[in-house]
Amino acid sequence: MFDELFKNLTGLIGSKVQEAAKELEKRLAVPEPAEPFTLIRQFTIADSTITKGGIAIVGESWRVEAYDDNSLRLIDNEPLRKVILFEIAEPTDPECVLACRFQAKALNTEKAITVKLGLCKQRQVSTSAKAWSKSVSPTEDFHSFEIRAHFKQDITPAKVQVIIEFESSGILEIRNVELLQAPVKLQA
C-alpha cells in the first residue's frame, strides 16, 4: 500500500517538475522575429575592440588568445579569461529580437570557447547582465554561428556586448561579426 502511494506521489511530483521546467523554458525562450533581420552594426578590423590585450588582427579576423598560468581562481564558475570584443548602445526599438552573426574557429583549446551576446545595465550601485551564448568547439575551419536574444527596453539603458569567455587556454579566431535586429512576432 505504501509502495503504491509512494509511487503515485513520485509520479505526481515528477510531472509537476516537468510542467514547471517547460513553463520556465517557455518564459526564457527568445521569441520568433516577425520580419527578416536588419543590420544594426557590422564590425570590421578597423573597429577598435573594448578589451585590448591578447587580441591581434590576422587577415580579416581577430585572433583572441588566453593562457592558463595555473593560478588559483577564487570562484569556480569564473572563466579563465573574459573579453568584451564590442559594445554598442541599446536598440531604439522598445522590444525586439537581437541577433549576433559571426564566423569563428577555436584552436589549441581543451574546452569549447563561449561567445556571448550580452545586455549589460549599469545601475547606481551595481551592474546587471543577461547573456545568450554559443560554444565554439575546436576546429581548423571557420564555421558560421548565430546567437539570438530577446531585448525589452527598461528604465535603465543597456549596452549590447559581444563577449568571449575561455574556460581553458586557447585561441579563438572570429570574423564577419554583425549585430542585427527584428521586431518580435506577436503571440496568438
Spatial shape = globular
Count of extended strands: 10
Number of helices: 1
In CATH terms, what is the architecture of the largest domain? Sandwich
CATH class of the largest domain: Mainly Beta
CATH topology group of the largest domain: Jelly Rolls
Major β-sheet, in short? Answer: 6 strands, antiparallel
> What is the CA-based Rg, rounded?
20 Å
- How many separate structural domains? 2
Q: In words, what does this structure look like?
A:
The structure is a single chain. The chain is mainly beta. Helices cover 14% and strands 47% of the residues. The strands form two sheets. Strands 1, 2, 3, 5, 8 and 10 form a six-stranded antiparallel β-sheet that branches. A four-stranded antiparallel β-sheet has the order 4-9-6-7, with no helix packed on it. Strand 2 and strand 3 form a beta hairpin. The mean pLDDT is 86.
Keywords for this structure?
mainly beta; 2 domains; 1 helix; 10 strands; 14% helix; globular
Topology:
Blueprint: H1 2-28, E1 38-42, E2 55-58, E3 61-66, E4 81-89, E5 95-107, E6 113-122, E7 127-136, E8 143-152, E9 158-166, E10 170-182
